[in-house]
Each structure stands twice: as C-alpha cells, then as structure tokens.
Amino acid sequence: MQSTFTHLIKRSLDIKQTTVGDPFEVLPVKNSKNAKNCTEIHLADRGLQELINFDKFPNLECLWLNNNKVSIHLYSSISCESLKKLKGWTPISV
After folding, report:
1. Averaged pLDDT in 10-residue chunks for the chain of 94 residues
2. Angstrom distance (rounded) from CA 62 to CA 87
3. Which end of the chain is more exposed for a tag (fewer CB within 10 A), N or C?
4. pLDDT computed for residue 84 by the predictor
5. Cβ atoms within 10 A of the Cβ of 21, count?
C-alpha cells in the first residue's frame, strides 16, 4: 500500500504543468474598459510558459516578462500592434 501511494505521489510530481500568463491577473478591476486603457503590464518572475488574452489589450505599449520561460513562438502570437517595449524578455528555443 505504501509503495503504491509513493508511486502515485511521484507520478503526480512528474506531470509538467504549463504556467499561463494572463494580463487580467494584474488589473485591479478586471474589465474590458481597463484592459483597453492599459498601456503597461508587469508579468515578471512568474515562470510563465504561455501568454493569453493579449488581444483584449489593444493599447499595450510596454510588457515586462523578466525571468519567464516564454518561447519566441508564443511571443509572436501576442497581437498588440501598439507594443513598443518588451522589457527583460530572453527568448528560449522550442
């Protein structure tokens, strides 16, 4: 019984979980008006591997991604035409 339990715990720890970065997480009031007016987002030091919902932030000019694991493929999927500065991002290969 103990070995089965230990095996299940070990197996569950081996599952790799993707950490998703959503810019709505850092908004004090999470609504479309604030997303539309937002020009800077700080998502540093979160171990992010995936980015979502950036299409809801059309006026985003500066994005902080320090110390995350975002690949260049995922970065290129961000559709922010107004993005001028990308701070602290180091691309990783996929």
Report:
1. 63 64 93 95 89 90 87 61 75 56
2. 7
3. N
4. 81
5. 22
Residue 37: per-residue pLDDT: 96
- Determine the pLDDT at residue 51: 86
Residue 2 lies in a domain: no
Q: Where are the beta strands (DSSP E) in 1-94?
A: 20-21, 40-42, 50-51, 62-64, 85-87
- Measured in degrees and rounded to the nearest 5, phi and psi for residue 18 equal -80, 130
**36: its two tokens:** 């539309």
Residue 65 in domain:
yes
In the chain, the number of structural domains is: 1
Domain that holds residue 40: 18-87
Q: Which pLDDT score, from 0 to 100, does residue 50 have?
A: 84
Strand 20-21 and strand 50-51: the pairing is parallel
- DSSP label at 54? G
